[in-house]
Amino acid sequence: MNSRIIVVNVVRWFLLLSGQVLLLRNMSFYNIATPFTYILFLLLLPFGIPNIVLYLIAFGTGLTLDAFYDTLGVHTAACVTLVFVRLLFISVSVSRDNFDEPEPSLGHMGFRWFALYALLCTFAHHIVLFFLEAFTLTELSYTLLRCLLSTIFTLFTILLVELIFYNRKMR
Asked: Contact at 8 Å (CB) between 124 and 151?
């Protein structure tokens, strides 16, 4: 991995976490739908990163967000779950021949693949996040509603950011 990819990902991590903490932290619709666009950083990490490093990056990202949100490991567990689902999805859907792509982005993998990838990873992240936050099954329908609407809102913002910075792969 070259130094340009590392610098781009460090800047991306800083910008997305800063935007999440400073702008999106208090943005929610009736306390039901909340965007968590910081997970775009974990979704766009390059294919070639070893799994243990990927888990450590997810752990550090979640821990950093937990420090700002005053949650005790909720975001950390959700980020590690997202990376687990990411690894499963990539191992099932991408052949080893396509690993010459630098990252799983919209420009490199196409809209349909990226939208499904982002949907599954975002939904897994939000299921863990909201159920650990609620930590009860008495409000199951409310928690599932929050999870569903936040997934839609987060997916919309992730796709919007990806379309803004869309870079079509030259074939």
From this structure: no
Residue 66: which of 57, 79, 82 has the closest Cα?
79
Contact 131, 123 (CB under 8 A): no
Query: What's the rounded mean pLDDT across residues 10-29?
Result: 88
Distances (CA, A) of 64 to 68, 86, 140, 170: 7, 20, 28, 36
Q: What is the 3-state secondary structure (H, E, C) of 80-109?
A: HHHHHHHHHHHHHHCCHHHHHCCCCCHHHH
Between CA 57 and CA 78 the distance in angstroms is 13
Question: Residues 135-160: what's their mean pLDDT?
Answer: 92
Q: Which two tokens stand for residue 90?
A: 């990539």
Report the pLDDT averaged over residues 140-152.
Answer: 93
Give the integer Cα–Cα distance in Å for 153 and 147: 10
Residue 122 to residue 165: CA distance in whole angstroms = 20
Looking from the CA of 100 toward its CB, the CA atoms found within 13 Å total 3
Vertex 55: Cα angle to 101 and 34 (nearest 5): 90
